[in-house]
Amino acid sequence: MTTTPVVRAEHLRKAYGSTLAVADVSLTVERGEIYGILGRNGAGKTTTVEMVAGLRRPDAGTVDVLGLDPTTQAAALHEQVGLQLQESALPDRLRVREALDLYASFYADPADPADLLDLLGLGAKRDTAFTDLSGGQKQRLSVALALVGRPQLAILDELTTGLDPHARRETWAVVEAIRDAGVTILLVTHLMEEAERLCDRIALIASGRVAAVGTPAEIVALAQGEQVLRVRPATPVADDALLAALAGVPDVREAVVEDRALVVRGGGTVVQDVLVALARHDVRAADVRLERASLEDAFVSLTGAGPDDPAPSLQAATTAPEA
Ligand SMILES: Nc1ncnc2c1ncn2[C@@H]1O[C@H](COP(=O)(O)OP(=O)(O)OP(=O)(O)O)[C@@H](O)[C@H]1O
């Protein structure tokens, strides 16, 4: 793409006391895309987008959003950037339409609240009080409020957390409709399925660093090193003989026999090479299965992160190798 990026962040860093929330994050969001920031809880996603939105000042690094510096040009930035942050709450009795009218009054040229409610499927709820909305409707209202200033960029943080699968899908459709209406979207999520379904590109964040950037397919391909091939011989072959047949095959990372089947993990051209090697040793396959990596496999393989890993600290960041 040749247009100027909507967001260009370089080497952002932010610590809270001794907790290094963001160690080194660089990212570039192009106009018109849904750009996902994917990472487990505590990876530094929210802190990253808060720096992009001008809500937090980076300890180091630079951010440019639509040609503006968020730390020194916050007012101008807020005219162009819509924010939907985690757990947004409104007064219980405020009605949907009142909330939109209130937010619209902050802008010189707001979107038409009725159009926005229709876009978000809230037209029938215009007179409903905030407290009487379902979780999904509250989330969609928070998106409507983020969009009422006709932003060029919308930042949506953990938009579907806590929603049931149906409400989640409805919300995804809304996000796509917003993108189709020309708004660039920076989407924070810890849900693989959400990132895979919605995002044009994803930055995988682990321990405050970018572990990988690409389309969902590119990220899965990056982790294709973790291909798993499972071959069941047509006639019984001794375990040792099966393993010996693989001698000299490049890119084999691990080979074991499980339940009479040869299970090989590896990268590159490991699949063809293993099948050729077996054929050379007269091992015919009754059943061959290739387990392809999912975005979730890619996430684990690229970030090395388990769901319960501790948050990084300044001390850990200086002594432990990068994830
Ligand atoms: N205001 C704060 N004060 C102190 N520590 C904080 C603060 N905000 C975040 N942290 C810590 O910084 C780290 C990164 O948090 P951050 O919220 O940016 O991550 P996240 O990826 O958005 O996680 P989550 O999805 O749980 O919100 C975590 O260890 C968190 O506990």
Structural account:
It is a peripheral membrane protein. It comes from Cellulomonas flavigena (strain ATCC 482 / DSM 20109 / BCRC 11376 / JCM 18109 / NBRC 3775 / NCIMB 8073 / NRS 134). Keywords: Antibiotic resistance, ATP-binding, Cell membrane, Membrane, Nucleotide-binding, Translocase, Transport. Residues 7-232 form the ABC transporter domain. This protein has 323 residues and is of the alpha/beta class. It folds into 2 domains: 7-221, Rossmann fold; 224-292, Alpha-Beta Plaits. 33% of the residues lie in helices and 27% in strands. A 6-stranded mixed β-sheet has the order 5-6-7-3-8-9, with helices on both faces. A 4-stranded antiparallel β-sheet has the order 11-12-10-13. Helix 8 (216-222) crosses helix 11. It is elongated and about 75 Å long. It starts with 6 loop residues before the first strand and ends with a helix.
